[in-house]
Amino acid sequence: QQQVKQSPQSLIVQKGGISIINCAYENTAFDYFPWYQQFPGKGPALLIAIRPDVSEKKEGRFTISFNKSAKQFSLHIMDSQPGDSATYFCAASSQGAQKLVFGQGTRLTINP
Amino acid sequence: DAGVIQSPRHEVTEMGQEVTLRCKPISGHNSLFWYRQTMMRGLELLIYFNNNVPIDDSGMPEDRFSAKMPNASFSTLKIQPSEPRDSAVYFCASRLAGGSYNEQFFGPGTRLTVL
Which residues contact A53 (CB under 8 A, 6 or more apart)? Predict the structure, then answer.
């Protein structure tokens, strides 16, 4: 019940296209859903996060869509650029919990 | 701020040797996390501390692994004896507790290779 399932494992998108990464969870106590971005040789860094009181959050080209009834959330990258090539992790936690439960990660490659 | 500092950045050792990984969290942060990243298992939480006290070590794989946080600015993760299957990238992260949704800041990681 603590798992967060992420798909796909890898994704190749053409420059200018839309990249979509999906995550699903079981624990209904989760109420914080961040996405982390990791470049090769670096640690993960927070990209964008959402709480379930909204269905969508947008920051620049990055959007999180959240479906509480389906217990799913997704990251959309609009106008994908080669510089977006990285590994993306979804995660979840519950209020008061210190730790994050991470998905398995998606390796995104944007072809020029 | 220098961010989370980890050392060494790379470590190559032989099976059976003791390995010590070090972490300096961001000044003022009071939660510290140790993670392990592998291709097969992704990003796994090993242990975390609040105010220097270990809170959850359920992710520590075996008794060969131990972690300490003697003060607010330093933590170690020790593997003794090391085995080839311990080869991974180990990350330390810190966070300012007190809010439910505070960001975790990750260090650059230590790439461990056990031969």
Answer: none
Residues 6+ apart with CB under 8 A from B25: B4, B32, B72, B73, B75, B92, B94
CB-nearest to A98 from B4, B42, B97 is B97
Residues B20-70: pLDDT tens digits? Answer: 999 999 999 999 999 999 988 899 999 999 999 999 999 998 899 999 999
Q: Give the pLDDT band (50/70/90) at residue B96.
A: confident
Note whether B100 contacts A97, CB cutoff 8 Å.
yes
Contact B75, B101 (CB under 8 A): no
Which residues in chain B are closer than 8 Å to A42, comparing Cβ atoms? 108-109
* For A41, nearest residue in chain B (alpha carbons): B108
